[in-house]
């Protein structure tokens, strides 16, 4: 089969690789019909390369048609249309019973001290072959895959794999009151969807912050009050001006390590990719290598007693935080990878009738799987108005 394969920093290719097969009784094999390109994939493309291995198959936002199931997968049959959550969880362990599927004790990666395994996402999270491919082996298929109806195009349901539950969790964790205010930093796919969900759930004032014109316009068209980073010397002051001088009730950091900011951290990130692997791994797991501009802005822009919800991915172990300010402002911090299965019952009903969240036209680009290298480059450069790219095998 054809698959998107990692070969090095900013070097992904579409290679011929062996077809997957059922290896465990709880496995399934799915023929992929659509697979999203995520901002987290760009971390593997550039920043987190020390944890990648040449030959890794990328992708964690797939959906498709079940081809084969193991004997312990009673709830799926060949021909079922399914979406795969980006994490692999068993559904029965203590963590899964707490709706913390990203911490699944069956698929945890204890060697690295990390949570449950993820599709297509470095050896830190199991090095499980990903879904930017023609076929995908799905472990724990008795629990993970989400069956969706026939009829609507893939785009109606594809975002259940990551974008929708991730954004839903970010908004839930932010806990902005109805009639209150929420600032969303970063209007890429997750930030954009956070804004849509917050407005749907009744947050009165949603402020979106970015610097890419196309992203700002997309959010503005959905009723978001946008702030262009390039037009304000002090964005936190601009947020305060829009929120009675106090700051937003809650702030979502949907940027993470891709933030523009510390030149020192940027050099550390890029240097790690040039070091021998063992040294680079040590640097990434023991040093502060994140650019924290977005998080520092969140701390500044949130009101006293407010909440910051961090959904953007960070990778450093000893990043310096302004603890005095966090403590003095009595800020609550909530964060973590989305627990997909936790939120599906709340999200799926919004996809079956009217398209209230605008998922049908959420993607800006649909490209053949063979064009994945060009798609990664376009997304990394934010070229051609790229916000969300869908690969079609």
Summarize this structure briefly.
The chain has 393 residues and is of the alpha/beta class. The protein is 27% helix and 21% strand.
Mean pLDDT over the residues: 91
Q: Report the structural category.
A: alpha/beta
Give the count of helical stretches: 12
Looking at the structure, what is the overall shape? Answer: globular
Strand content: 15-25%
**Which parts are unreliable, with pLDDT below 50 for 5 consecutive residues or more?**
259-269, 271-275
Helical content stands at 25-40%
- Please count the beta strands (DSSP E, at least 2 residues each): 15
Output the radius of gyration. 20 Å
Overall description:
The chain is α/β, with parallel strands linked by helices and 393 residues long. Helices cover 27% and strands 21% of the residues. Strands 3, 4, 5, 6, 7, 14 and 15 form a seven-stranded mixed sheet that branches. α10 links the parallel β12 (302-310) and β13 (332-335). α3 packs across α11 (340-347) and α6 (235-241) runs parallel beside α9. The radius of gyration is 20 Å and the shape is globular. Residues 259-269 and 271-275 have low confidence and may be disordered.
